[in-house]
Description:
Structural class: mainly alpha
Distance between the termini: 39 Å
Mean pLDDT: 82
Shape: globular
Low-confidence stretches: 443-448
Number of strands: 6
Amino acid sequence: MFGWKLHGNGRDVAPGAVVAPHERLAWPATIAIGIQHVVAMFGATFLVPTLTGFPVPTTLLFSGIGTILFLIVTGNRLPSYLGSSFAFIAPITAATASGSFGSALAGVVAVGILLAIVGVVVQVAGLKWVDALMPPVVAGAIVALIGFNLAPTAWGNFQVDPIAATVTLAATILFAVLFRGFLGRISIFLGVIVGYVYAIATGAFDVPNAVTGVTPAEAIDRAAWIGLPEFHLPDFASPGTWSTLAMFLPVVLVLIAENVGHVRGVATMTEDPSINERTGRALIADGVATTLAGAGGGSGTTTYGENIGVMAATRVYSTAVYWVAGFVAILLAFSPKVGAVFNSIPPGVLGGVTTALYGLIGIIGIKIWVDNRVDFSRPVNQYTAAVSLVIGIAGFTMQIEGFEFGGIVLGTVAALVIYHLGNVIARARRTGADDAGPIPAVGPLGGDPRD
């Protein structure tokens, strides 16, 4: 499994060439690129626990463990990093608001188990049934409504400190359009840094926390450099847990789309179609990693487009760099001071960056439509997208026998029912059915433009 072949002289990648998954550069270069992958994933991975109240070090720990587990399950031939999935933000936020932290972890565990089961089915039966269930118009609608459903949360944080939020948002946009390649892809991370520095300069760090009475600066100073992450157990016993699990089910569909799309993206970039044969293993690995994270107090994971962007920029697809990245993330998890720094990010800064971030999640869904040329002249596609998005953005809710279903659940159900039932009718009446295509390769947003 670990028999990487040295690529060329171990230092350079020739024009037009790529470092294949079974190859590696010299170890100094491999370690450097591995650390670069940590930087690339860090901006997104720390935001999920920061926004949901999950412990940052714990999430980092299970991110690193999940990445190593992913490499083992896929036979060390599928380069990918498992970071925190944005798709969990909305259901976790809703679960913690109406239930408890343990209920949210139970939802993460449930998603992981279901995703692993889907992976086993894909490994045995292939991907055709997934393509049929979630054609591009449906996959795009589900991803988009999850992002847009979070808009009120971003606005709530934005209002706490509009100036800090505006500075953060402006910096994020500026970095995205100013820089090419790697720096362009971590514009959100850079925007948070600018907002953080602004908060320090304007005295936000001298204001005591309303609950603890401790200022952010004091909290960082008191945190130890080395220590164990916090661990929490999921709660399946509380009555409120089972009413919140339904909110997590649509996340499974998003993770399937992300994993399948990323595997196809890597297969395309490496010009190795055999990588697609590991799709089932990828889903199993992500499912097990998500289950493990939820069982210990971390957020659910997914394959990261940010790191695929780094591979595209460096042309290094070696799995060796991901072993380095996984171990570096684990090491960072054992520093409570790192967690204290991220927990000290002011709400206004989070409001600015999430205004962009949640919108970008929605744009990824729209990008799926654009990349696959979804035909919106067909009524079945029009209503699949239109109805599901309005339900998700408005935050529709429905009570059924004590269970409350939110906008994400109802929007997802609407997209699936309208598309498939509408297609049956449209095909029978010949009024313009949509022929389902495969899930697309989901790439990163930002970075170098394709001129």
